[in-house]
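Help! Submission page says 'invalid entity' but I think these are all valid:
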Amino acid sequence: MSTIPTEREGINGLDRATLCALPTPLVEAKRLAESLGRTRLFIKRDDLTGLALGGNKPRACEFVMGQAKASGHDVVIAVGPQHSNQLCAIAAAAKKCGMPAILLLLRGDDRVRGNLLLFRILGAEVRFTHVDPANIEEAYDQMEALADHLQKEGARPYKLRYGPLPLVGTAGYVMLMSEMLEQLSLQQSGGAPTGTRHIFVGSGSGLTQAGLILGDKVLGGGCWIHGVMLDGQVEQEEHERNVLKAVETAAALFGHDLSIGADDIRCLPGYGADDAAAETKATEAMKLAARSEGLLLDPVYTAKVMAAMIDQIRAGLIPPQDTVVFYHSGGIPAIFSHCKAEAF
Ligand SMILES: Cc1ncc(COP(=O)(O)O)c(C=O)c1O
């Protein structure tokens, strides 16, 4: 079993910017556990990572921006949707690193609230491309043209496409696993059950899940990482293949020689659908978390992950002696752009 250093320098000498306030708490959720008929259930509070309104993305941004800074870039340009948590983290990370951020937004809901409001508060330069998400290549052409222009003026732009962050960001999630395993072992020395540890995590690009799987393998944690699929358009098999590829590529990048197979990848489909049934489940999960633990979830990501976890528990798929961890990946701004008040 190899080890992952926990010092701020990061892993394998990778450059790392200090953006987060770590470790985030791992808290026991007794009232939520009781309402689900379990003995012990934990919440990893990465909504409290400490950059802007927190979330999982700042952990990856520490390594992405570390690399950008080390290679001499001095301005960040990123393409994405109007209400992207990732763009918010990128804008906040750029500012904390002393760089301007230019966001090229795809066509969408352009009411200034939620993340779109945060982009403004953060002082990012927001440009509305009016490009439909289906024609995203046009937005990339605009990004290239802007980067050429800035380069001619002497700047060194760092370009970020929509979708997975650069793979180096996965290092942030490998370190998250190291942090969480240490916290869990402290809890378990206090008498928690010793069964399998199940971690429920949202899986959009799949990088968070990939980093957790890799970290678990490297450290011999023996956890089951359940990736709740957040994009209703993607097939389960295809997504699982993508996550496996990300784990393998990140392992090679970070210098780990591991045997990882399809059996290590567990993805739960059906929660990312854009339909009334998925919305109802997510709303119920938001209510349960808020009313049992005072815990706020967002309707787009974390509520769906909680809904999947609840279903797995209620269906009896997690043995009673096993430990359950809900990974809270943030997304809080969406409460203020996507929630329908009448649902609560
Ligand atoms: C709040 C939140 N949770 C989870 C995810 C999924 O993370 P990943 O893209 O690493 O799978 C995202 C991605 O945008 C997110 O914003």
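Support: the input was valid. A stray whitespace character was the problem, and the output above is from the cleaned input. Confidence is low (pLDDT under 50) at residues 5-10.
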